[in-house]
UniProtKB/TrEMBL annotation, chains A, B:
Reaction equation(s) it catalyzes: uridine(38/39/40) in tRNA = pseudouridine(38/39/40) in tRNA
Enzyme class: isomerase
GO function terms (MF aspect): tRNA pseudouridine(38-40) synthase activity
Coiled coil ranges: none
Active-site residues per Swiss-Prot or TrEMBL entry: 52 (nucleophile)
Superkingdom, taxonomy of origin: Bacteria
UniProt subunit comment: Homodimer.
InterPro entries named in the record: PsdUridine_synth_cat_dom_sf, PsdUridine_synth_TruA, PsdUridine_synth_TruA_a/b_dom, PsdUridine_synth_TruA_C, TruA/RsuA/RluB/E/F_N
Gene from which the chain derives: truA
CDD domains attached to this UniProt entry: PseudoU_synth_EcTruA (cd02570)
Residues that bind substrate: 113
Protein name: tRNA pseudouridine synthase A
Homology family: Belongs to the tRNA pseudouridine synthase TruA family.
Length: 268, 268
């Protein structure tokens, strides 16, 4: 069975999330339907991250095993045609053949997310559903300073949803940068994997720092509390974008999924 | 009657265009309804440009006369609250009191538009309806060179919709710049006023230059033909954004609207 690796963009607004669920349309389901329409194959595709409802992607990575060989070019065009026909807000940006050892989830070395805040008085018209509207003045430099207290290897119990299924709350956060461009504030987060709601919990907490309610020291204290109750309010999904996944250049070996929930990205 | 000047953002997708019409919801109608809900005043608001259906705005400017004095801050919040309640994709970015001589349309010195093209193989998921999808490689430098043949004072009959009501096809185009940032190509146009479909006609024609079908000389020849039939296909409204309007710092005098269609911006 030839394996294909694909980069996927989607507007998370109309979906219950990445993962197939009974309560509504999922991105995974939309792609699996398109694969069936194009090839007749009934497959289960795996994504690098199981994004929540309303969370967007510019660079989700997936893999799928098909019953016959396709040229990547034709497969991409066929899937995009079927996705468009179905009215899905999902686009396949790239297709490559992949080694049988490649696993979109378990081969991932690093995941990159972006969280967008628009800080202005007026509600969002053009960007509705595509950013978090914060009608307050935010100091992005204070937010960035507060963010630096979170970088590194920590027990992130404070910034983890009660529904998080990961065995361990310990993660290594490689990067959490806050920058501003006019009314747009961007938070960029990188780690091998994240806990459920981790980035949205960061964003909600950093916003408190930005408006002067918390100091960077308060954010550090919240981390050290290792207690969900110490977290700021979780920011809405609208602002979150799954941007990119890094993989080893050559994958020669199937990495062992010791623990499904711990190794992979657990719903950001 | 105190006069207010407002800056307005909207997603043109759900509307028949700026102007009130019988066949569906308009941006003008949405704002007039919000003013009525907030103040009880039945007003007719005037916009600096009468954008077509599907055309967006980040900086449309309007004026409205209300029966009583409002603090700009309160008026903005009240209008935005009513627009949100009505489910409109319209936001009031700024409100100022204005001189009785200020006219959003006839006082305008210059109008700035942006046309966004996304040039890539895959259809648009996140930017659907917000840019023109062109699944071809475009040379933005050739597009820019071709655009320069259009700058200046010309008879723009070639780039004018058959429905254009302006008396004269002569306009002075101050700027038509084409730049690229990754897969995004931006065309920025500035003039005192534009003809109906002028910028979308430019965009459709420049795209032909970008894909190598037309040379910059062909674009110049199309301009010189002064014939609608010489124009490339008109680009879709999705990519067009009304960005900004410049006014004199002090408006001491009511400028005479010699000709409604000629002076103002005639639907881009």
């Amino acid at each position: 069975m030839p394996r294909y690796r694909m980069i996927v963009e989607y507007d998370g607004g109309p979906y219950v999330g990445w993962q197939r669920q009974d309560n509504g349309p999922s991105v995974q389901g939309a792609i699996e339907k398109a694969i069936f329409s194009a090839s007749g194959d009934t497959v289960s595709v795996r994504g690098a991250g199981r994004t929540d409802s309303g969370v967007h992607a510019m660079g989700q990575v997936i893999h799928a095993d098909l019953s016959k060989e396709w040229s990547p070019f034709k497969l991409q065009n066929a899937l995009n045609a079927h996705l468009k026909l179905a009215g899905d807000k999902v686009a396949i940006l790239d297709v490559e053949t992949a080694s049988e050892f490649f696993d979109a989830r378990f081969s991932a070395l690093r995941r990159h997310y972006l969280y967008r805040i628009i800080s202005r008085r007026a509600p969002l018209a053009l960007e509705a559903g595509k950013a978090w509207w914060v009608p307050k003045v935010l100091d992005h430099e204070v937010m960035h300073a507060a963010a630096q207290t979170l970088v590194g290897r920590h027990d992130f119990s404070t910034f983890r949803s009660a529904h998080c299924q990961a065995n361990s709350p310990v993660r290594t956060l490689d990067r959490l940068d806050v920058t501003r461009n006019g009314e747009l504030i961007e938070i960029r987060a990188t780690a091998q994997s994240f806990l459920h709601n981790q980035i949205r919990s960061f964003a909600g907490t950093l916003k408190l720092a930005g408006e002067g309610k918390w100091t960077p020291e308060d954010v550090r204290a919240a981390l050290e509390a290792r207690d969900r109750k110490a977290c700021g309010p979780v920011a809405p999904p609208d602002g979150l974008y799954f941007m990119q996944v890094d993989y080893p250049e050559v994958i020669t070996d199937r990495r062992k999924p010791v623990d499904e929930n711990d190794e992979g990205d657990d719903l950001s």
